Amino acid sequence: MSMLKRKEFFGESSSSDNNTDQPNRVVLGTEITGDIVSSSGILIEGEVFGNISCSGYVKVGSSGKIKGNLVCVNADINGTLDGELTIEGLLTLRSTARISGDIETFKLTIEEGAYFAGACVMRSPIDENTLNTEIEFDPEES
To answer: pTM for this structure?
Structure first.
């Protein structure tokens, strides 16, 4: 299954200036099967079986459950997530968070009591386009 990429849907800007003040809500007792794509924030208190791609803030309440990948700008997790997390900014794992999957983020906060099983990659603030990681080797210079 290919990872849902937020930038494929929303372009290069990671700004959430165009978001409304009211987030989309998946309330307790609601179960969604399928991918969610949103240009505004999302509050999840129910269950989502699918990938979520959001150009804003995602909050998973203590009753919230996601079985799928999460791609967003910032996330605050109180509930359960089984999948990969790709967060462009800050990821906060609250004391009641239960994460099974790999994390890629720029900033990470983990409260005491949070459970995390997986690998974590902390991205550098250096733009990948300006950093040349290729090393050329010319054996004739020796």
So the answer is: 0.73
